[in-house]
């Protein structure tokens, strides 16, 4: 009589663990909530347009905004891209219900919903709408939720400002294509405002949102002066943690057309604060209460959330240290007085601005003055002291409009002055670098634990698409020496560490470890030999299983167990029940908290079920030490003497369970 064991149990271990992952995903979906559309709503055909992926309150969120032709209940449907089969979303896809209202700047309706509980390092696909009226599926990916990352900053696409919307669109699309191709792992697309020329021109908004990248990378939207005067900006961009109280709105427009607000979010090691700099003077008394309100808002956010990040980056539209047409605007000079000392006191590291359609990078500015008079123009490394802030103005990302750099005047180097730099009299006193070539560009910011690395990068040359140049503006770029992807300016901003030394260590996610088992040595036949007759009433055979090696390196120290059961013993068409096999488990080599299972008697002894039902070989409780163990068992087979002569075999199936 013979007995064989099976290695199929290792497959069962894997299947059991996979089932646990699936159950986890389903549990998340239930927690997040999903609502099936009613039959009437699902049947109503709805056209979806203007889908844009926005940033959420943190790395685990995204906000999606879109337009809808009908006022129906809609949602976002989300699933890991790996689970999309032949374009079909799985039954386990998670749904996020949308809210919205009727559009005021055009026909139709707007909707938005927040995706939450995203996992890091995961590719996702999503679609919006409802059953029967889905948008196409779009995709994005998350990366590590801790540590270094890059984001891209874009100045004033201002679609339509050249007088040729489609030409402007082409330049904007090309910049995003170039920027994301060169930086595929960039995690945010940050806007400097002025997305369109005319706030409520939906054709211009359609061109602005034409690039596919705006559905693949989260957009950090900023409202510019050309984006106010209507609700389209808000209808297309729903932003996190937004305060739309009166002081943060554009105060020069009727209540029904105000857009914007101030908002903030934390993304990894950066606290971003985005303000509506259009809200400046109160229309009631002409005071600068708007600026004061922004300062109060920024102060409150920094006090509450500044400790959550290593860097503080402020974004708004109106550039207060820029080199071109808006450099001498009275409102920007006033903002210098209203903002700069507060920003220094609050420890703002960098300010990103648009508006002036030219590139500049300031010296380290403290309280409205150059912090270190000895800082050299164009320095590749800058070491701001406490209160030092770097101000950056981005050039046009679309090529729709460029402003030429102005010469310094005699107004000096005071807080409102636009006088020359003593170290380079051709520039304003506050700018380390100024540039205007009439070519498209974008700003890349690398966020590192010990520095911010900033580069202004050419995304075009004098050649098309470059609307302003195509319409007759001169161009000084030389493609051979300054091709697409070449660097206009590059600087590393080093943090101030006080009188001591900062010590940093990056701690990765701990290896999760794993649980597994193998059969020790050669998995040969367990041969019980020839059964011996006992007392003229039964046959008995004894042996040992091939030992089982268990290893558990998981940090969770979760419980585990190994069990087994045996099928019928068969020889051709002859068989007898596996219940006649019993065993006595033991631990050969201790470790991993292993304890032997209870003995199981042959059913010949106790009329039970023996090993025909699953019985424990060994197990460990929650909190056991990591390590390995070797498990064994003595086998005891007792069968009635009525069993017909033969060479019988059975399969012992081993199952491992772990939570």
Automatic annotation (TrEMBL):
Known EC number = 3.1.-.-
Chain ranges of the Purple acid phosphatase N-terminal domain: 50-142
Return the broad EC class.
hydrolase
Q: GO molecular function of the protein, one example? A: acid phosphatase activity
Task: Give the top-rank taxon of the lineage listed in the UniProt record for this protein.
Answer: Bacteria
Mind telling me which PANTHER family this protein's record contains? ACID PHOSPHATASE TYPE 7, PURPLE ACID PHOSPHATASE
**What is the name listed in the Swiss-Prot or TrEMBL entry for this protein?**
Metallophosphoesterase family protein
């Amino acid at each position: 009589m013979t007995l064989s064991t099976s290695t199929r149990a290792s497959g069962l271990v894997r299947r059991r663990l996979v089932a646990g992952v699936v159950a986890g995903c389903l549990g998340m979906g239930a927690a997040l909530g999903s609502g099936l559309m009613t039959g009437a709503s699902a049947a109503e055909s709805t056209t979806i347009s203007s889908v844009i992926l926005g940033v959420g309150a943190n790395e685990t969120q995204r906000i999606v905004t879109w337009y809808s032709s009908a006022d129906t209940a809609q949602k976002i449907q989300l699933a890991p891209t790996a689970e999309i089969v032949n374009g079909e979303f799985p039954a386990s896809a998670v749904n996020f219900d949308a809210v919205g209202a009727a559009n005021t700047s055009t026909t139709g309706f707007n909707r938005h919903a927040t995706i939450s509980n995203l996992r890091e390092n995961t590719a996702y696909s999503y679609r919006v709408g409802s059953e029967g009226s889905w948008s196409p599926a779009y995709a994005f990916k998350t990366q590590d939720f801790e540590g270094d990352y890059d984001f891209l900053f874009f100045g004033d696409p201002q679609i339509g400002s050249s007088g040729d919307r489609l030409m402007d669109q082409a330049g904007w699309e090309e910049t995003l294509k170039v920027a994301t191709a060169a930086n595929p792992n960039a995690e945010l697309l940050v806007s400097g405002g002025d997305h369109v020329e005319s706030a409520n021109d939906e054709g211009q908004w359609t061109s602005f949102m034409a690039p596919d990248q705006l559905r693949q990378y989260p957009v950090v939207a900023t409202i510019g002066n050309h984006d106010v005067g209507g609700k389209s900006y808000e209808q297309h961009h729903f932003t996190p943690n937004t305060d739309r109280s009166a002081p943060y709105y554009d105060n020069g427009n009727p209540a029904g057309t105000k857009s914007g607000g101030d908002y903030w979010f934390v993304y990894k090691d950066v606290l971003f604060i985005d303000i509506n700099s259009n809200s400046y003077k109160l229309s009631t008394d002409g005071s600068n209460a708007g600026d004061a309100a922004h300062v109060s808002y920024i102060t409150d956010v920094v006090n509450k959330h500044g400790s959550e990040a290593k860097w503080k980056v402020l974004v708004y539209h109106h550039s207060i240290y820029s080199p071109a047409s808006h450099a001498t605007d009275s409102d920007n000079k006033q903002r210098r007085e209203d903002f700069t000392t507060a920003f220094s006191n609050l420890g703002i590291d960098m300010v990103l601005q648009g508006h002036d359609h030219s590139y500049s990078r300031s010296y380290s500015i403290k309280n409205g003055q150059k912090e270190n008079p000895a800082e050299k123009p164009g320095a590749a490394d800058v070491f701001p002291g406490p209160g030092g802030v770097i101000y950056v103005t981005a050039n046009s990302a679309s090529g729709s409009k460029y402003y030429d750099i102005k010469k310094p005047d005699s107004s000096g180097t005071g807080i409102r002055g636009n006088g020359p730099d003593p170290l380079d009299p051709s520039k304003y006193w506050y700018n380390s670098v100024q540039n205007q070539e009439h070519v498209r560009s974008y700003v890349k910011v690398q966020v590192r634990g010990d520095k911010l690395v900033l580069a202004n990068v050419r995304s075009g040359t004098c050649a098309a698409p470059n609307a302003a140049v195509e319409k007759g503006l001169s161009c000084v770029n030389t493609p051979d020496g300054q091709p697409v992807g070449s660097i206009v300016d590059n600087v590393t901003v080093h943090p101030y560490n006080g009188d001591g030394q900062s010590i940093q260590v990056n701690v990765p996610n701990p290896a999760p470890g794993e649980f597994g088992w193998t059969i020790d040595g050669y998995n040969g036949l367990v041969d019980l030999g020839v059964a011996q007759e006992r007392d003229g009433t039964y046959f008995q055979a004894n042996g040992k299983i091939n030992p089982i090696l268990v290893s558990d390196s998981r940090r969770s120290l979760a419980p585990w167990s190994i069990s087994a059961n045996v099928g019928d013993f068969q020889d051709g068409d002859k068989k007898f029940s596996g219940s006649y096999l019993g065993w006595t488990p033991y631990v050969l080599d201790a470790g991993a908290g292993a304890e032997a299972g209870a003995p199981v008697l042959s059913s010949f002894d106790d009329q039970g079920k023996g090993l025909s039902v699953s019985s424990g070989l060994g197990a460990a409780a929650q909190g056991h030490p990591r390590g390995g163990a070797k498990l064994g068992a003595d086998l005891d087979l007792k069968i009635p003497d009525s069993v017909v002569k033969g060479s019988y075999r059975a399969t012992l199936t081993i199952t491992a369970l772990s939570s």
